[in-house]
Backbone:
């Protein structure tokens, strides 16, 4: 219910606190792949912390400040994408993503993120869409390029992970760059209406 079809087998749907058990099972499969790139992968380790992760995004959605969506492939949650930050007044947002190995090499992240960008720019009037990834996350930067984003620069040693500080690339897409959606448009809404390699494992 309330989903956007990415392919015949894959759907993009809201990912909410009541799905914490399914999310935890997904994280258990994905953690080793996702943890270096997505900050909350390593902290969603039991039902309580998984629910807390999803609740944080539910709270952001209630404030129109962020949103979280899952990608289901053949009925199994394999990844997702999110508005890490969303500021309609300023006209800016940041999008991130993650994917477990079972969902890779299918173009799912590119298709899903395209849906979010289309909705942000063409429905909500967002002017600047940002994408941030570690400089060694070449799968994620490849998605940014595929989406027509431009590399603005690098934030040096801004991202700590297991005692090591990593550089982050900043990519952006402006509404004036002329983004157009090739696929389905509008993210799924929990109210029923819109208001790596090929796939990066996180951004």
Residues:
């Amino acid at each position: 219910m309330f989903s956007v079809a990415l392919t015949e087998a894959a759907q993009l749907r809201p990912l909410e606190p009541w799905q914490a058990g399914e999310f935890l099972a997904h994280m258990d499969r994905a953690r080793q792949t996702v943890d270096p790139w997505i900050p909350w992968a390593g902290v969603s380790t039991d039902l309580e912390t998984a629910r807390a992760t999803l609740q944080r995004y539910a709270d952001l959605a209630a404030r129109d400040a962020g949103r979280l969506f899952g990608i289901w492939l053949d009925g199994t949650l394999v990844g997702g994408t999110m508005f890490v930050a969303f500021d309609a007044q300023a006209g800016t947002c940041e999008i991130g993503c993650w994917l477990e190995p079972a969902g890779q090499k299918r173009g799912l992240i590119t298709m899903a993120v395209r849906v979010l960008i289309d909705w942000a720019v063409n429905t909500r009037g967002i002017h600047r869409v940002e994408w941030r990834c570690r400089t060694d996350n070449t799968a994620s930067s490849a998605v940014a390029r595929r989406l027509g984003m431009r590399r603005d620069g690098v934030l040096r040693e801004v991202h700590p992970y297991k005692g090591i500080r990593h550089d982050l690339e900043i990519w952006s897409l402006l509404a004036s760059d002329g983004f157009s959606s090739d696929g389905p448009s509008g993210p799924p809404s929990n109210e029923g209406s819109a208001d790596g390699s090929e796939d990066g494992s996180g951004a």
